[in-house]
């Protein structure tokens, strides 16, 4: 049909039609799917399709095999969507009058019900009233309960096609009558259809007609089959929402108690014997009770709206507690999925469910944990910032068990074979700088990320740990800790004995380029990265070649001219000395790509303007992070007592400083000796304001922004406007050179004496490093590493 539709219709289709008369089940199913695919591909026009295929489809609708019949029916229902009205009336609707008669088979009448439900969307209300509704009424009164139930479920589609008035006068009476039917499946279908049509009916119909039916159905549900309870528990949230406002206080309370009873259904029975000794019917009943409680968990957010979030603690907290501690995994899994919605609805009352969050994090089932961590960043953000200021101030003390629960959850995921859950959990841990203190992250999570990167056997898990570690490093507030992490990355990964660790170091470098400023990467990771061009393992050199364009993009000319020379020297050496043909081929392609790259300049360029602004903002935040730490130390010395992380957070939140740099800030010039004491005080004060400003921006950024390492346009605009007001002399102090000069005098001894950290800061000409000289090419790799370690 795709290649030659005309010849296929003329020569092939007749043979297919003949073969289908005697074909088996498999061929019938394949033909039904093929006919549907031809329709969806639009291989022929609708008119041609109806002329060639429609009669074949109608002929096999009543096949003796139920699966084949349903397959042809699905094809027909899709065809009805595209056929014109005239074709529908003559080819389908007119024959349907005889097919829906009691003299026809039950299967024929069931097919007629489904076709009628589909046809109502293709005709106007008048045609439906005249030609379709008589058939609908007849099938609703059919002698077989299967037919009545099937027609009842189609009344929702029919109601949407005929409008509100005809629905009230024709459909509603039929539904009320069917809700009293002797067949339980018919009553269930009527109940579900009524719930789905609640929006169509007005308040009078709901209160006078529908509410009594619903009350009667709920009262009889415990005496009926458990399948009715399953359906009722699933639709209860929609039912309470649709009838909200017409309940009397007594009815409101009765429905709430009915929901609570369903939430604990089956839990009251003591089950102290072996499962193998339980009769099969009891096991089946327990499975149905589990389904009921699972549906109750699904509807829990709707029930919070029903009782009003303000009444949650008094009305629903005990029920929520039971669902979170339910003995069955599907129930706990469902409430874990709903946990974020519950947190949003509670808003300032979210602190009420802190313990349940810890419970689900510690759940023995990884399925429950996997469901919870989908929205873990948003949940933790609500837990830490949602509510009034008094709650915010005590956010860390109100979650005392959070850190142990998070670490235990990660260890359980790591010990299992479900590495995707482990990977997802590590990715979500990137939100932790918003929630817990920098020290807690450093002592409880950072080393664990290192361990995963070096010992885990699953590559996606290692990469997730690497990226999360980089984000932890980005928002770490202690310079000594940051440099210790950088040193570990370089020594244990970049210079590790295992080539696998060196590959992970290159992955980490890629994340560093994405998350940090260009100057940060150039200062700490540029030389250790390109040093791997001498790696003895071809895979490492190959991966580095793929990374080199990103590495080059971090350079700015002319400040990084010496680093550019190092890069070119390494690439030239690879071209000349590389023996592996696969690596050499990639090197040649990389060289062409590097040659086409345009270098970023120190001054802003129009084509790189947005990227330069973003990088400048990252660099500014990194500098302010260092200044903030220095100010903390000065304040501790002045006060004569240490300032805890919690105290500093509280003081920072209490400050009412703006979130952007003021235009009138006095910026100190390094090396200037003419500053008066009063000016020095102003300088310190301005630093404090800027530090607090950064802290507000960096640590309270949304998780999505943190994950993408981008900053909001407003903060960028504010920074640009503040910089435009500074004098040329003042601007010097914001460059990396001046910061390094100022930092050398005021940095703690642990940092200044750290001899093993490479420093390739822009504009540095005083320090002599073997990596920045031409002698690097002639030195063996081990000797180079050794000399760099011994260089102060």
Automatic annotation (TrEMBL):
InterPro entries: ARM-like, ARM-type_fold, HEAT_type_2, PPP4R4
Basic and acidic residues bias (residue ranges): 632-656
Superkingdom assignment: Eukaryota
HEAT repeats (start-end): 132-169, 171-209
Ranges of compositional bias, category Basic residues: 783-792
Organism name: Odocoileus virginianus
PROSITE patterns reported in the protein's UniProt record: HEAT_REPEAT (PS50077)
Biased composition (Low complexity): 744-761
PANTHER family to which the protein is assigned, alphabetical: PROTEIN PHOSPHATASE 4 REGULATORY SUBUNIT 4 PPP4R4 (PTHR21467), SERINE_THREONINE-PROTEIN PHOSPHATASE 4 REGULATORY SUBUNIT 4 (PTHR21467:SF0)
Start and end residues of each stretch annotated as Disordered: 632-689, 739-792
Polar residues bias locations: 671-680, 762-777
Descriptive protein name: Serine/threonine-protein phosphatase 4 regulatory subunit 4 isoform X3
